[in-house]
Amino acid sequence: MNKSAFKSQVSILLLSALFASCSARSTPNRLTTGDVQLTFQPVVNPGTVHSTNEAAMASLGGKVPPNLEILKYSERRTNGDTVQGWYVVEKTPIITRIDIQSARAMQAMQGRGYNVALKLNPKVAEKFREWTKANSGNYLAIVLDGVVISAPVIKGEIPDGFVIIDGNFTKEEAENLSVKLRRG
């Protein structure tokens, strides 16, 4: 993949909301022990981040349907602030850790910190391409260990199965998370 295509790929998925570092919820040691649970789950339209769990529940008429769940949202911004809330997401993920063919840490192209670059296996890459094509303008929750770390707007079709988790990770966090995802 050439550098121009790679930059285009990154901007499609990540421009509106950059993936946040898991250090807002855990420490680098957490990434070196135990399993990492990573899923990409569709956010229920219109993609509202609710201020409380109760507000998210109220948006569903007071009862969560069996195909949905309410997840905490916690994203560390580049200025160090943490934004929190609650998202209503579909229970069935588009991508899980087992769908990842490779993962590696890489220095961020813009801003500071490190990212984790993922390559999806070909079968899932095609499924993800179809989903992103059909869901342009919708939100996709990136869920790490049961917490939404970001919910970017899908800007368009992502055709090649390359995904970047951009979260102002430290080098150690990005490397540790990459290792854990490769083990999946």
Describe the structure.
- The protein is α+β, with helices and mostly antiparallel strands and 184 residues long.
- The protein has a single domain, classed as Gyrase A, domain 2 (2-Layer Sandwich), CATH 3.30.1360.
- The chain has five helices and nine strands; from the N terminus they run ααβαβββββαβββα.
- It has helices at residues 3-14, 28-32, 53-59, 122-134, 171-183, and strands spanning 38-42, 68-76, 82-90, 95-96, 100-107, 114-120, 140-144, 147-150, 162-169.
- The two termini are 24 Å apart.
- Mean pLDDT is 80; it is low at 1-33.
Biggest pleated sheet: 4 strands, antiparallel
**C-alpha end-to-end distance:** 24 Å
Strand order of the largest sheet: 4-1-7-8
Strand content: 25-35%
Radius of gyration: 16 Å
Q: Helicity range of the residues?
A: 25-40%
Number of strands: 9
Mean pLDDT, all residues: 80
* Strand-pairing-aware structural class: alpha+beta
How many individual helices? 5
